Amino acid sequence: MKRSRLRRNRKLESDCGGDDLSATTPSDSEQGDATYETDSTELEDAPSSPKRLRLDENLVLEPEIFYDAGELYDDPLDEGGVDLSEIPEDFDKAPGTIERRERIESRWKRYCASQVRKRPNDPKWRKVEEALRQASNNDMYRFLRWCLQLERGEDGRHIKGINKASTLETDWKNLRCYYQKLTKIVINDEDGSEIRRGMKYLVQEFGLDTQPGRKTPVYIEDIGPFNETILSTQEKKFHLGFQRIQVCLFNSLGIFTVHRKSALLSLQFKDLQISLQKDPRGGPPVPMIELTPEGTKKFLGLTKLTTFALPEIVYGPSLVICPHTLLFGILFHARAFRNQGLTSKAQLRKLFISKGCEQLLVPLDPKKSGWYVFCKTELVKGVPTIQRTTQMSKSVIATLLVTFGEIRGWKGAFHAHQFRYGSGKVINESGWVSKEQHMLIMKHASPRTFLNHYHPLQLDTDMIRVICGLDPDVELMRAVTRQSRWRDTRRPRYLTDQQRAQVEDHPELEDARRNLSKIRAQYEETQQSGLLPRLQQREKEVRNTRKRLHRSLRHQIRERFDEEQAFLDIEAQLSGTVVKEDSEDKSSLEDTMHPLQLHLVQSLLSYPVSNSLEGEWHRRDTGTAAVVQYCDVLEGGPLRGRPKQKAPRSAPLAGRTAQPQGLHQTKNDFDSCVVPVSIHGKPLRATKEYLETAKQPEACFQCFANEGLPDDVRFRMFHDAGCVTRHFDTTHLDEKPLECNWCEVALLHKMAFQRHAIDAHGQNVIMKHADSRTFLNHYLPRHVDTDMQNVMNGHESKKSLMRAITRRSRWIDTRRPRHLTAEQRTSIREHPYELMRLRHDKLAREKLNTFGRLERALRQKVRREFDRRQAKIDIERQLSGAAIDDEEVKDVLRTNSGMPAPSDEPGEEPTVVEVRTAKTTSSVSPEMSQEELLLEKAAKYIRKAKKPRRCFQRYGDTQLPVHRRP
């Protein structure tokens, strides 16, 4: 009978549409909570009552009536929207891709126009698209050669030109895409190889550079002093101090998250999650910042978002690179937290985590979720105004990085991609990050992407010491490859008057002035209005030519500065003269630093002066308060013009210098390269110390911990870690039961055992996948648990803390509701689907299914919003000084008196939350015992409830213990 009823239910549910059928299947997120209706004390576990069996028999005996799905649900009409042909082919493409494609299209149009002038009798070139369809390989080759000869753009402005072979390759790629867009045909390999042969000839003909650009890395040692320069320099001013803080935060997040420039600039408040995490090693809660930027690279409009966790590092050397100090300062300045009483870092430290929870979320104001962290600041009617909902442009942050890099004395133009060069190399060599996680952090589809496009070309391997068997000098080799190696504060930023005068004699500028004189004389003689636009164009060309020559000369001087200045310094030292140098910290401007800026620099450059935790907290809280205070400082706007030039020195000041002692007694370093007598290899037998200390042990921990095995099997050393992997996969993954002999921990399934071997024992195991990317795409958690700050600083990573914030137990909260309240269940009965009962009385089962589906959806919504709502309630109580009585809360939850949450609607006021104790029934005698009171409450509940969730059969069984009867 039970089986026939199941078939009947399926038949009824199949008539209700696919929506209800899919709704009856629990989702992955609800599978863990799907047992909330199968407790041992519930009526569903008991045998079915005879009444229900008779109801099922009646249903089976009745003739089956099939209803059309249209009577219950009206299918949507296919109307509105756009057809596939109306969607542009460049839809949701990257702006850079569209810009390069439009540029190649415009150049092809100009090339066709030039061919029409050259070959007026050839009709093929009169139609641009038809010319490309009929173009031969020689036509495409001639077009690429024509692009190399271009000097002016469409608007007549001088273009930079093509100097790299990679740029020519990019133009050929865009031309192929344009050809495929028109003809819907891909250029075959034979034609492509023929054109590539011509491109090789063009590279040699025009002398194009075939080497990639220098990938100079930027490390944490560079960003710390760089941020100090940004905070203290007076050579660059902003409208508001908030802009200066933004640049420092951009550098800090760039070095610790390895994100691209576009991803950081698109960061909004909704992409942030602030929380207090319970320290697994004990101690006070740890403030945590988690970033999930959505502005990452996309393919087909989709991307897998990655979450970066940045815990606060206590006793850090400097606060100028601390993202917590800078980001919390911006958040407090914007009053971004949902709890308006939370206005300082000191108040945040007073909060605590409730009993039964692993964290305390600090929710942000949902009304400000669309605000940008790196927002735009502009003048509105002469007043500097922060445009919170407008993103800062890429060109603004790129210009600021170049300007501050020049002020710092760095060579070349500093750009944001250098963060990825340095940080990507650090995490690749740290040993704390696996290959798959490195690809996840860098957002790469293959490990070769990092090798081909990000790994610095200047190797920092100390080859002499490594080959001689000595310990390499890592600090020295890292120092000679990073950005600050080429730092020289004497590097000129502006041209002198003599250098600017040299530009006036340049032949190109003389030609531009000559053309201007002709047009001007012609206009003065004729006074024709048609010559006025040409005259203005010539004047603009003279100005642009002068600026371009100034930039070119300035670039040449800065590039040659190192060799020229080194020659002068060596000559001065050899001749015994001293060149008087200006103080490095002395500003070239006469104005003084703002008092609040001086206070900001002193607060962020302070060092720990006490070993007490309270003293370190006070230092960090003071730095955050200084950031909040400086955000509103008016700096006066960007400086105009060039700084005052100093009079050139005719000759260096004379004076003898002290020669280095023992200059000729220096020993040759190569003479000290002695090969050590013994080379440390792997041990002959596996030991406990070896398995605990080795990063990738070449012995099996599972066999070693099994004392029942022979000694030659327990202490066996394999050839390499890969052999251990294959041994573990073929031998131990098929054991039953799955249990780690070393840790004495039982595992549920194979994947849990594999994960345990990776995390606890550093053992690489074989995940039985057809492709190596399967683990990266489907199994590797998207929450990055790499301690980026400690890794970049060269410190030991806090694996216990980072693992605690990524595991499932982080979200434990025993107060999370498991059942809906009576008010919430009543609201479901008012849903429009409830009216279906009036239309089809025969489908009573459909009503029950719909009610159950809506109940599950509402329950899931309540549980999903619980963390954010409850966090606000807890913070408000803690800030107001009210204590939370756990027994009182349990009593309220036991009596199903749910606590109302504050409203999230913009126009509604927050609801005042009150915790009230459960009211007892006046008819109960105070002399009754606890057991009698429980039985009395259970009896009243069973008599009054329509569908009681207590078993009346167990209640009437007096042989059972009292605590199991109700």
From TrEMBL:
Residues 1-10 have a biased composition (Basic residues). Residues 1-51, 638-667, 896-930 are annotated as: Disordered. Residues 918-928 have a biased composition (Polar residues). Coiled coil: none annotated. Pfam families: DUF3435. Signal peptide: none annotated. This is C2H2-type domain-containing protein. It comes from Penicillium atrosanguineum.
